[in-house]
Design goal:
Elements: H1 11-21, H2 25-52, H3 59-69, E1 75-77, H4 78-85, H5 89-101, E2 105-109, E3 117-121, H6 123-141, H7 150-164
Antiparallel strand pairs: 1-3, 2-3
GO molecular function: DNA-binding transcription factor activity
Domain HTH marR-type: 30-163
Protein name: MarR family transcriptional regulator
């Protein structure tokens, strides 16, 4: 969250200056980049949280609702939801439990795999996901505070970092069907 009033200086630039002064010039740029991304995350998450709070949602809850809404049947095995959201299965179970309490999702037995449980989007969940997306688009994504031309560059840089960190692999490109 942003401070009540802006600081009179950039604390990350000052930390970088101190890093160099203390003999760590070879890692100062990386420290400043990492610190900047972590602070940017705090600022971005604060904006998203403020937009979603009136709807009783966190970003994690909305991510699961949106993921389900993007599927053909509004349902996914819990393990698939965990993998796609890149969170531990325990976190998905906790999210599903809270969303169930609000009647936004329900659990069902998997029709062909007796070991799996499906998480299914309810009509109320679909409606809340649509409302929340409208709010986020209007209050956050339409004016992200980053010039529009910089967004694809920023996304590409971060995707490259994520890929190189083992977050994902590039998809296999299949030839066009005959």
């Amino acid at each position: 969250m942003a401070p009540a009033s802006p600081l009179p200086m950039d604390p990350i630039a000052e930390a970088k200056r101190q890093w160099v002064a203390h003999g760590w010039a070879d890692t100062a740029d990386a420290m400043a980049a990492f610190s900047s991304v972590m602070r940017a995350h705090q600022l971005m998450y604060g904006r998203v949280d403020a937009a979603l709070k009136p709807l009783g949602l966190s970003y994690a809850r909305l991510e699961l609702l949106r993921l389900l809404s993007f599927t053909r049947d509004g349902a996914l095995p819990m393990a698939s939801a965990s993998a796609r959201l890149q969170v531990h299965p325990t976190s998905v179970t906790s999210l599903v439990h809270r969303l169930e309490k609000d009647a936004l999702v329900r659990r069902e037995a998997h029709p062909s795999d007796g070991r799996a449980t499906l998480v299914v989007l309810t009509d109320a969940g679909r409606q809340v996901a649509e409302e929340a997306t409208t709010v986020l688009n209007a209050e956050v994504f339409a004016n992200p505070g980053i010039p529009a031309a910089d967004l694809p560059v920023m996304t590409a840089i971060l995707a490259r970092f994520r890929r190189n960190s083992g977050d994902f692999t590039d998809p296999v490109e299949y030839p066009e069907p005959l």
